[in-house]
Amino acid sequence: MCYQCGGMPAEQYSRQLLDNIRTYGWTLQYVEGDGERNPACGYTLGLSLRGHPEFIVFDPDPAWAYLGVKPLAWAVMAGAVFDEGDDLTAFFPPPERAELLRFPDTAVHLYTANSMFRRPGDGPIPALQLVWSSSVGFADSGLMSDWHDR
Predict the structure, then answer these.
(1) Residue 11 included in any domain
(2) Cβ atoms within 10 A of the Cβ of 48, count?
(3) What predicted TM-score, i.e. pTM, was given to this entire model?
(4) Over the stretch 61-97, which tens digit does the pLDDT of each residue have?
(5) Which of 9, 129, 5, 142 is nearest to 72 (CA)?
(6) CB within 8 A of 21, min separation 6: which ones?
(7) Mean pLDDT of all residues in the chain?
(8) DSSP-derived secondary structure letter, 3
(9) What is the domain range of residue 72?
């Protein structure tokens, strides 16, 4: 359960998110799902402040969502720029096959990013969706120990 769902006041929660972004340059917002129509997802907050699309990944486990976007977010912090179709093998070595796709409309799924960083008159904050195209998904691959140290 997230802090806000656990009863943290919205203003305090927003301050916590902003503190994380000030400290680390980005943070992860996780949204619990309520079935197939609205699956759980995690997305970055803060990358759009650097002119980069946010990342979103659909995963029922917040830890896996974080571990999925973490290497990409840190690469952005170091100056990398990603777009749809970029080669991600340096971040997700075989047998993983991760891909980035442009996320069509972030207004609903990246609600917090849009409410915090969208400028009046601008379109929704852009995002790239991280997807696993291999038959073995990231969470099922047994790579958890490798990703803890990254």
Answers:
(1) no
(2) 21
(3) 0.84
(4) 999 999 999 999 999 999 999 999 999 999 998 888 8
(5) 129
(6) 27, 45, 46, 49
(7) 87
(8) T
(9) 19-148
CA gap 22, 11 in Å, rounded: 16
CA distances from 63 to 25, 28, 57, 99, 121 (A): 19, 10, 11, 19, 35
Token pair 């991280």 in the structure block, residue: 130
In a domain, 7, yes or no: no
Q: How many domains does the chain have?
A: 1
Query: Average of pLDDT values for 27-36?
Result: 89
**96-123, pLDDT tens digit by residue?**
889 999 999 899 899 999 999 999 999 9
Show the 3-state SS of 90-111.
Answer: CCCCCCCCEEEEECCCHHHHCH
Contact 28, 63 (CB under 8 A): no
